[in-house]
Amino acid sequence: MKSLTRYILMLLVIPNLLLSCNNFSQPSGPETEDVNSAEDPSGEIMEETPVAASEIEFQTTSEEIREQIGKDENESEAKKFYAQRNYAPAWNKANVRVAFLEELQKADSEGLFLKDYYSDEIEELLKTPAELKGSETALLDLLLTEAFFTYAHDLYYGKLNPKDLYKTWGVSRKKMDLQRLLQENLETGTIAEALDSLKPKHQIYRDLKESLEEYSELRQKEEAHEKIAEGKFIKAGEKDERLPSIAKRLQDLEFLSENVADSTYNDRLQEAIKKFQKEKGLQVDGIIGNSTIAELNMTAEQRYGQILANMERWRWYPRDLGDHYILINIPQFRLAVVKEGDTVRTHNIIAGTRARQTPIFTDTLQYVVINPTWTIPPTIKAKDIIPKVSRNPSYLSSKNMKVYSRDGTLIDPQKIDWSSPKAKSYTIVQRAGPSNPLGQVKIIYPNQYLIYLHDTPAQNLFSQNQRAESSGCVRVENAVDLSGYVLRDQEAWNEEKIRETIASGKTIQVKINQPIQVHHFYWTAWRAGDKTVFTEDVYRLDKEIYSRLLKRD
């Protein structure tokens, strides 16, 4: 990055050097001093640059651009761009060119990599800009255009396609006309502003830029620490030879003020372990198992990769989440209701297991069902219910479940051959009641995944820190209160009316009038104050994203 900065600087000051060569009465010393003073020790461009920078122009022709384009057999945004402008060069003006190169150097701070944007090729051409021939300036023009489109795409859409990584991905994005964006901002000289407009404006993303800078330094300074071996679980009062290493690691991570461990798992060490488990989204039981060991073994390099993965995710998400929305973070097992930028309420949630993941998608609330029945989803029916009925014919009646044919006719389950493939074609419905897993309410936003928010009779599960327990739907703690919130603009459905309806046992559907969006998102790193918080990557996605980010197809 520093070397490219140096070549940008050379591009700025070459006209001054050329002027001094043509004016023999003027000493060359001051110009040399200006060149040296223009770059600070960090390699960044100083705020003051020569006025003559705006006068540097390359004389590239349309014919030279057309010739360079002809050497590229692939269809690209750049080819379309030049064809639309009759192959006129785009970057002859130095002030526009320099503004773009300075903005491009910020790629690393955005969680991207400068090398992905033709920086080596551009740097090579800029070593001697005054000596470039027409074909070389045409190549430079083309490289700058390719770099713009690639960088702009990655800032707005992300470098990776989330559908290549997620089994289910339902977050749509508005398309951006990058051709028009470049053309308009070349004319106005506002390339930097154009690129800035593509970046996510979410506070979490902006905060992660600070975390990225922090961990970029930490990974360079970090000394190798002893990797703690996995093994049998360690419980309070037990002895284990790994405990001194565990205590040392907790001290390094600032969860212990001093190393308090010998080979016995004492109270102070257990207190530190519980604090560590809570922050990392693990089960807070004070037992040192392999999940806790894995988090303790995470290096600054791995955390750096985790931050990059999360910044990439935020490039995938919509730039505008709406004025009033529900934001779910699956790994954090947390739901927040946000209105006009303020978080007005939060709820603990239970999300899908790694085998039955809660999908990533966005939709809009439609209605609340009080005393819901439960139509068994196809996967649960095939994998859970039918095997249980095959073993125990009275299972359905014990769970207050009814069976219906495709035309809605009630069927006697005793007359069904549950070992037959046809068994999967029947609809199984559990009536409302204490044993219904949907609890007292469900909040619906119709979607292709058959996912919704709902209550649960198993309230004890919310006391756990690690809550990947569902078959994909989102169980909400205090779901009745959340239902009251989304219906609060309707006087007929105040809290008292909702409670009365629940007590009646009748299944009632109530339309939601407020336009409230629901965002099922996934992120495992964020800032709290001046500290970066990491939680367990429950679906094991971060490592794969980081690995792919390091590559450029």
UniProtKB/TrEMBL annotation:
<dbReference type="InterPro" id="IPR052905">
    <property type="entry name" value="LD-transpeptidase_YkuD-like"/>
</dbReference>
<dbReference type="GO" id="GO:0004180">
    <property type="term" value="F:carboxypeptidase activity"/>
</dbReference>
<keyword id="KW-0573">Peptidoglycan synthesis</keyword>
<dbReference type="GO" id="GO:0009252">
    <property type="term" value="P:peptidoglycan biosynthetic process"/>
</dbReference>
<feature type="coiled-coil region">
    <location>
        <begin position="201"/>
        <end position="228"/>
    </location>
</feature>
<protein>
    <recommendedName>
        <fullName>L,D-TPase catalytic domain-containing protein</fullName>
    </recommendedName>
</protein>
<dbReference type="Pfam" id="PF20142">
    <property type="entry name" value="Scaffold"/>
</dbReference>
<dbReference type="GO" id="GO:0016740">
    <property type="term" value="F:transferase activity"/>
</dbReference>
<dbReference type="InterPro" id="IPR036365">
    <property type="entry name" value="PGBD-like_sf"/>
</dbReference>
<comment type="pathway">
    <text>Cell wall biogenesis; peptidoglycan biosynthesis.</text>
</comment>
<dbReference type="InterPro" id="IPR038063">
    <property type="entry name" value="Transpep_catalytic_dom"/>
</dbReference>
<keyword id="KW-0133">Cell shape</keyword>
<dbReference type="InterPro" id="IPR005490">
    <property type="entry name" value="LD_TPept_cat_dom"/>
</dbReference>
<keyword id="KW-0732">Signal</keyword>
<feature type="domain" description="L,D-TPase catalytic">
    <location>
        <begin position="324"/>
        <end position="511"/>
    </location>
</feature>
<dbReference type="GO" id="GO:0008360">
    <property type="term" value="P:regulation of cell shape"/>
</dbReference>
<dbReference type="InterPro" id="IPR002477">
    <property type="entry name" value="Peptidoglycan-bd-like"/>
</dbReference>
<dbReference type="InterPro" id="IPR036366">
    <property type="entry name" value="PGBDSf"/>
</dbReference>
<keyword id="KW-0961">Cell wall biogenesis/degradation</keyword>
<dbReference type="InterPro" id="IPR045380">
    <property type="entry name" value="LD_TPept_scaffold_dom"/>
</dbReference>
<keyword id="KW-0808">Transferase</keyword>
<feature type="signal peptide">
    <location>
        <begin position="1"/>
        <end position="25"/>
    </location>
</feature>
<dbReference type="Pfam" id="PF01471">
    <property type="entry name" value="PG_binding_1"/>
</dbReference>
<feature type="active site" description="Nucleophile">
    <location>
        <position position="473"/>
    </location>
</feature>
<keyword id="KW-0175">Coiled coil</keyword>
<comment type="similarity">
    <text>Belongs to the YkuD family.</text>
</comment>
<dbReference type="Pfam" id="PF03734">
    <property type="entry name" value="YkuD"/>
</dbReference>
<dbReference type="GO" id="GO:0071555">
    <property type="term" value="P:cell wall organization"/>
</dbReference>
<feature type="active site" description="Proton donor/acceptor">
    <location>
        <position position="454"/>
    </location>
</feature>
